[in-house]
Amino acid sequence: MAQLLGMTIAINAGDIDDVLDFYTRVFGRGPDTAPMDDFLEWQICPGTWLQLSTGHDRPGANNARMRFEVRDIDEAVGRMAQAQVPIGEIVRVPEVVAFANFSDNWGNALGFYQLLSARQLTTAEERRLQEAEHAARQAARDSADQQTEAAEIIDERAAKLPPIPADGSVPGQTGPTRAG
């Protein structure tokens, strides 16, 4: 078997801002790289990456895929074909990555990938900017939550008030209050 160089665990997730917020809290830092607009990566330990593909309508359980890094994707796919293991076509993202997916006999989603250029890691300055943007988004969410809470309290209080009668009378008084 060809020497494995690393591994990725890819999962689908929802809105990119929500994903960024959640995983920034989980890892205590922003992503180490974002090779595409809808894709975030955190290095979990040397050679192991968590990849989050964002913007999916139905993210959730059972959509994870584990890929193994190889030096030559064409060789890895050729070896799988020789071994009569069904494997998908090679997908190439220019100057980023080439990968091919397959499943084991039990339905676990696997694949091989080859980096086409070095990962562009987030600099310390970019990380500081990410953290500031994250804090600003969180403050905006907190403010919106407080406004929603206040509106719900007002709605609750209004729901407890007696309805205004159709004839214009004031509750607790007799007869219409309009000049007529």
UniProtKB/TrEMBL annotation:
InterPro entries: Glyas_Bleomycin-R_OHBP_Dase, Glyas_Fos-R_dOase_dom. Residues 133-144 have a biased composition (Basic and acidic residues). Residues 171-180 have a biased composition (Polar residues). It comes from the Bacteria. It holds the Pfam family Glyoxalase. Residues 9-110 form the Glyoxalase/fosfomycin resistance/dioxygenase domain. Residues 133-180 are annotated as: Disordered. This is Glyoxalase/fosfomycin resistance/dioxygenase domain-containing protein. It comes from Kineosphaera limosa NBRC 100340. The lineage of its organism: Bacteria, Bacillati, Actinomycetota, Actinomycetes, Micrococcales.
